Amino acid sequence: MREPKRPRPEERKPAWLKKRIPRGDGIARVERLIHENALHTVCVGAKCPNRNECYQMGTATFLVLGDVCTRGCRFCSIPGRPPAPPDRSEPERLARTAEKMGLRYVVITSVTRDDLPDGGASHFADLLDALRSRLPHVQVEILIPDFQGDAKALELVLRSGPTVLNHNIETVPALYPLVRPEASYQRSLELLAGAHAWGGIPVKSGLMLGLGEHDDEVDVVLLDLHSAGVDLVTIGQYLQPSSDCIEVQDYITPRKFNEIARRAYQIGFKGVAAGPFVRSSFRAAELAEKVGVSCSAIRSSL
Q1: Is the dihedral of CA 104, 188, 264, 4 positive or negative?
Q2: Which residue of 11, 69, 120, 207 has the fewest C-beta atoms within 10 A of its own C-beta?
Q3: pTM for this prediction
Q4: Is the pLDDT of residue 177 over 80?
Q5: Which residues have CB under 8 Å from 51's CB, separation 6+?
Q6: What is the pLDDT of residues 101-154, one digit of tens each?
């Protein structure tokens, strides 16, 4: 396992990572709707630096199946402890909230639920059914866990007809024991390849930089993802969300992100989002348009 280096004092957060946090009525309304309907968002759970910007645009990435996780990935601040049973009212509450927000493109992710027989796949299917019942023309991107490699769970999700199927590879193989000790790089690749083999549903993945990876390792991951049939890729800067999480090892410059994006397009990806503030679901609708998804009027009139 690769040992992390200790960041030097001069490696404090650089100027390009200092972001002004906007406020406004749109943000307050989204926060109120989410709270009133007892929902969770990954925006808050993962302490995403873009959350207020997304709220101002009237969008949010919903976090389902609870707010605690059965795994303990070292890049995430979501608590890792035994979760409660799935809330069967959640699909309808989420659909109602999306309707009130006027959403045309909805992103749903979840905590990892290794305690459930299907890893939560049936809950994703119920969510898609509830959304399409209220919003027949809504586009839905789902960001799923690895389901512990269960092909039947993946098939159940794909049969429910998501617009985009997303599963993050997160980091390079050599860092998995340090960053994702309970996950498997190969298992994630196989899930992505299985989604691609299904056909007709664009496949998306993402990774974080700044965890101590080497440039050549990033290129290998991009080649692996493309070979697995991934269409869209997001590449962003890892930022330590809490003192319990792994420390940042490197801050990647915007110029380097641009170079990586150029290489990714050369490899053959249809859509690439790369930059310090890029996250897997940030401006997801815009990236989906790269594979022909119609996302007109996605912004709600908050």
Answers
A1: positive
A2: 11
A3: 0.89
A4: yes
A5: 41, 43, 44, 60
A6: 888 889 999 999 999 999 999 999 999 999 999 999 999 999 999 999 999 999
Residue 110, SS3 per DSSP: strand
Q: 189 vs 149, 154, 173, 232, 261, CA distance in Å?
A: 10, 13, 11, 14, 20
Report how far Cα 252 is from the mean position of its chain's Cα atoms: 20
3-state class (DSSP) for residue 41:
strand
DSSP-derived secondary structure letter, 11: G
Please name the residues in contact with 58: beta carbons below 8 A apart, sequence gap of 6 or more.
26, 30, 101, 102, 103, 299, 300, 301, 302
- Output phi, psi for 78, to 5 deg: -70, 130
What is the amino acid identity at position 192?
Answer: L
Distance spanning both ends of the chain, measured CA to CA: 48
Q: Which residue has the tokens 């919003």?
A: 135
Count Cβ atoms below 10 Å from residue 107 Cβ, excluding itself.
26
Q: Which CATH number is associated with domain 22-291?
A: 3.20.20.70
3-state helix/strand/coil string of 49-96: CCHHHHHHCCCCEEEECCCCECCCCCCCCCCECCCCCCCCCHHHHHHH
Average pLDDT, the chain: 86
Handedness of CA 274, 278, 281, 285 (dihedral sign): negative
Separation between Cα atoms, residue 196 and residue 28, nearest integer Å = 39
Domain ranges in the chain are 22-291
Cα gap 82→113, rounded to integer Å? 9
Q: Which amino acid is at 138?
A: V
Radius of gyration of the chain (CA): 18
CA atoms within 13 A on the CB side of 216: 0
For residue 34, the model assigns a pLDDT of 72
Residue 60 binned pLDDT confidence (cut-offs 50, 70, 90) = low
Which positions ≥6 away from 140 have C-beta within 8 Å?
105, 106, 107, 108, 127, 128, 131, 132, 162, 163
Question: What whole-number distance in Å separates Cα of residue 302 and Cα of residue 297?
Answer: 13
